[in-house]
Structure of dTDP-glucose 4,6-dehydratase:
Amino acid sequence: MDTLLVTGGCGFIGSNFVRYWLSQHAQGRVVILDKLTYAGRRENLHDLWDDPRLSLVVGDIADQALVRRTCQEQGVTLIVNFAAETHVDQSILGPLVFTDTNVRGTHVLLEVARELRLRLHHISTDEVYGHIPDQHQSVETDPLLPRSPYAASKAAADQLVQAYHITYGLPVTITRGANNVGPYQYPEKAVPLFATNALLGEPLPVYGDGLQMRDYAHVHDHCTGIEAVLLHGRIGEVYNVGTGREMTNLEMVDIVLDVLGRDHSLVRHVTDRPGHDRRYSMNVDKLRALGWQPQYDPREAVAEAARWYAGNEWWWAPIRSGEFRAYYDAQYRARLAGTGQP
Ligand code: NAD
Ligand code: TYD
């Protein structure tokens, strides 16, 4: 059984993946390498730190000596790279760290994997395809046309991973995930932001007309999709992971408010995000052909996520009342002051 180096394992998807992987693979061993940025939180794995199959190294994926030493000392055979700066709005406010971690950090992991002859699985995103016109669904061979600093850094990483397979024969696989929702998602992202604002009785800042389309997929289905590729995927291949169905942001907001029993008067249309991608949509047939299928449709995924925030104030209340406040003010104070339709 492989020993996994899970980078970014204290973040939202990484922590869900670690929990899922250890629940399914009794002989599994996981070493997390995580810098513990604002989005990386030990409490995301509060129930697992006593498990002898799990260990944590605190550090940066761009630190080549640390990555090499960790892989050698821990007998790592497979790197699963979740570590990233992940929020589009943060990438608009401060883009350089996105290049440091998402591009250079991924490049360092590839170099260590090449040196030590390890397999690397990279977690990419549907945002690398850019805005998708109506009637089209992205397939894995489509060109990458990213439009935000976040998406551009993820596209660069995605292409570096492919280049290492082509040039050096490095055994790699890539999954491109849709918008994930579920437990432990930092409340900067739309669904947890809206759920926690609703629970706090604060307005929900919807960018522009709110008719942008997203495939809101439950993080559980992303984890099973990654597992399917790790176990059955073809080396050198890319796989889309999502539900294959989209909804508008306003539909998502309606589900959140209905589940939480809050009034729709909380919705505020605010100034749009610069360069906001109107629509993401992916075809997921290639992953389905490996025997994978999602358990949640997007409506259930959003509803289930909203319910988790209602039941887990212990997790999000300290974030909302602490460090998150400064970001929230920078991002929303002026927007919310000029309320009304855009
Ligand atoms: P997150 O922001 O919740 O967590 C990111 C984790 O990476 C944190 O634990 C953070 O501490 C860690 N990290 C950041 N910089 C690091 C560095 N230099 N070295 C080591 N660790 C570092 O992110 P997430 O939402 O869980 O996303 C995980 C991955 O999935 C990312 O690669 C992201 O691009 C991708 N993805 C996310 C979504 C989504 O909807 N959230 C969708 C598709 C793909
Ligand atoms: P987000 O969760 O940031 O994911 P992404 O931009 O990577 O898809 O946002 C999801 C959608 O919600 C996106 O269309 C932007 C929109 N949005 C808002 O309308 N208001 C907000 O405050 C946020 C954070 C997002």
The domain at 3-181+219-241 is CATH 3.40.50.720 (Rossmann fold). The mean pLDDT is 97. Residues 7-8, 10-14, 33-37, 39-40, 60-62, 82-86, 101, 105, 123, 125, 154, 177, 179-180, 186 surround nicotinamide-adenine-dinucleotide (ligand 1) (CB under 6 Å). The first helix runs from residue 12 to 24.
